[in-house]
Amino acid sequence: MKNVLAILCLLALGQVTMNAQKTMRGTVEYTYTIKGDDSGMMAGMLPERMVVVYGDNAMLTYMEGGMMSSMMGKIIVNKGESYIIKEDQKTIYQMSEEDMKNAEEQQKEQTGNVNKIEGQTKDIKGYSCQLYEVEINQNGQMAKQKIWVTDKLKAPQIKGSGATAMNQGLMGSMNVPGFPMEVEVDIPQANMTMVLSVTEISMEKPDAAMFQKPKDYEVKPFSEMMSMMGGN
Q1: Structural domain boundaries in the chain
Q2: 2-228: what fold?
Q3: Which residues contact 23 (CB under 8 A, 6 or more apart)?
Q4: Which one of 67, 77, 161, 226 has the largest count of C-beta atoms within 10 Å of its C-beta?
Q5: pTM to 2 decimals?
Q6: DSSP output for 165-216
Q7: Mean pLDDT, residues 144-155
């Protein structure tokens, strides 16, 4: 269970580093599909969707459905700050410089391979996508992914303290050259495979208020939230 939660957290924080054409200012919705012997056991825990909203030097990620949606909250990078808003607790979990440095150090420790699979393309929501196979090794554990990316979109370059670590995570750590339209992750510890597929894309620019901190919420350190989730 802990390994599955960690992978979901990384996917929520993650995006691929890109060199492409049209910069996203809008909303992308990914739908989760779970396959494997243990998928039924996880059905109530795992979310149904992950939504990523791109603004000007800001990004909001949240999940819908399942227990994970309330556990994760709204993950926001905005103008150099990174924080998680838990509306049910009326709390903001602020990521410190030390949190960001720790995340960046963990990414530096990752090794692996990215292989472009020639001749493997498919259309997802009107975008032609290329298949890459990725292997990531961190702390002796190997994670395998299949990522379908398009070179017709790119996410905005979000500048400021901690933005790189919040923006990359599992999907971005190996610098796959494209925007992620579908990501398939093997989870051998849980004997299942998790697939995130884009089901909706809107290019409507979001309201800047979506990325702001609620003024009446209590602010706590991010480390406190991770401790409650069983992290280090």
Answers
A1: 2-228
A2: outer membrane lipoprotein receptor (LolB), chain A (2.50.20)
A3: 153, 154, 155, 156
A4: 77
A5: 0.81
A6: HHH-HHHHTT--SSEEEEEEEEEGGGTEEEEEEEEEEE-PPPPGGGGSPPTT
A7: 88
